[in-house]
Design a protein that fits this description.
With 388 residues, the chain is of the alpha/beta class. It is built from twelve helices and 18 strands. An eight-stranded mixed sheet has the order 3-4-2-1-7-8-11-12, with helices on both faces. A six-stranded parallel sheet has the order 15-14-13-16-17-18, with helices on both faces. A two-stranded antiparallel ribbon has the order 5-6. Helix 5 packs across helix 8. The radius of gyration is 21 Å and the shape is globular.
């Protein structure tokens, strides 16, 4: 089967959607398919032309682009060339919507869209505060929905959503529920097991009273609530430590907040970590926390990564994300509620038996539902229903 995957961002750009497309592409290739990836030329490799490069057994076609908001919205040129690309099925990922919209208008074959999240304009991007945020946000969201989202969802053949609760609460997807198919995100458990096995042969990594966050340091992730919860955690668990892994425009503001709360010794910023060091960070933590409060967070792949490492999870009780905290693998807390978050953290990290039990429950869940080999089979079954 010849499959085109299209996403405005793709590695080496780092993010949840980018990793999703990369891992899905690899799993589909391993299943015997021919893959071509369409993406923006960000970071640029060669300006002024569409590039074709052989990479990891698939073709990557990079379209020239500039970023309107770095890391968020690329403006992509030359999309009319999509009409000349042949494939059995096109599979695009949005937002950003530009490949999905172009394929909906130009491609002559079945088109699947993975709808990763609703557009939601945050009140702040780094140090830039959105003026009159409510008015600006609603205007941008209405324009996007009317001119992009509704048109491309109407034209496509199927819509993949990563969680039932997210689809049911989306103001955009409610008119397209007949097209929606729930297929969750995934991870390659083998990659984690390779590092875990290596550490076990070295004697293992002893879990500490570490609270871990992994992700982009951006406003909608809610990292400030995690920092604000730490003084309360430390009253009950004086040796607790918060480790923050990732990079992003919020780092300086978060470091300032840490200093304000006099937590410089209890909070560590590790920045971006390569995979082995990332896995070690999961293995040493007693709990992983995802405090996102926005619909820009619709799933939380990092929750799966923590579960693969037998690390209990705590997450905001928001659509999509809540579906991954089940069967005893962790706890949910009210979004933005510092006291609720503090209570959940203390409950887990003060009970070594609970840490072990929740960790094992999470590992069983990720093995059963979230390995990429499982996800790829579900995606291929969807493709086949559209082709035949």
């Amino acid at each position: 089967m010849k499959i085109v995957q299209a996403s405005c961002y793709y590695p080496p750009h780092i993010g949840g959607v980018e990793n999703h497309v990369k891992e899905l592409t690899s799993a589909l290739i391993e299943a015997g398919n021919e893959l071509e990836v369409l993406t923006a030329d960000i970071p640029p490799e060669k300006k002024g032309e569409v590039l074709r490069a052989k990479l990891n057994n698939h073709i990557t076609r990079r379209f020239r682009a500039v970023e309107v908001f770095p890391g968020y919205v690329p403006l992509i040129f030359g999309l009319s060339r999509i009409r000349d690309i042949e494939a059995d099925v096109f599979h695009s990922h949005c937002p950003p919507p530009f490949f999905s919209y172009a394929i909906a208008k130009l491609a002559k074959h079945p088109h699947v869209i993975t709808y990763h999240f609703d557009l939601e304009v945050p009140a702040r991007v780094g140090s830039l505060r959105i003026p009159v945020p409510g008015v600006v946000a609603r205007s941008v969201e209405r324009f996007y929905n009317r001119h992009y989202a509704l048109q491309m969802l109407e034209a496509c053949d199927a819509i993949i959503v990563t969680g039932q609760s997210y689809a049911e609460t989306s103001p955009i997807l409610r008119d397209f529920r007949g097209k929606c198919v729930v297929i969750p995100n995934g991870i390659d458990i083998r990659k984690f097991d390779a590092v875990i096995g290596e550490e076990e042969r070295k004697g293992g990594v002893k879990r500490k009273r570490v609270i871990l966050f992994v992700g982009r340091l951006v406003y909608p992730k809610g990292i400030e609530y995690l920092i604000r919860a730490m003084p309360g955690v430390l009253r009950d668990v004086p040796d607790a430590k918060l480790v923050i892994v990732g990079a992003g425009e919020e780092r300086m503001r978060l470091e300032k907040l840490v200093r304000r709360y006099r937590l410089s010794k209890e909070v560590e910023f590790r920045g971006f970590l390569h995979f082995k060091e990332l896995v070690k960070s999961y293995l040493e933590a007693s709990v992983f926390v995802l405090p996102s409060f926005s619909r820009l967070e619709n799933f939380g792949i990092v929750l799966l990564e923590a579960m693969a490492c037998r690390t209990p999870v705590i997450a905001s009780d928001i659509p999509g994300v809540r579906e991954n905290v089940r069967d005893g693998n962790g706890l949910l807390f009210r979004p933005g509620d510092v006291e609720s978050l503090r209570d959940a953290i203390v409950r887990i990290i003060t009970d070594e038996r609970l840490v072990e039990e929740m960790g094992e429950a999470g590992r069983r869940l990720v093995e059963a539902r979230f390995d990429w080999s499982v996800i790829a089979r579900q995606v291929m079954q969807l493709y086949e229903t559209l082709i035949h």
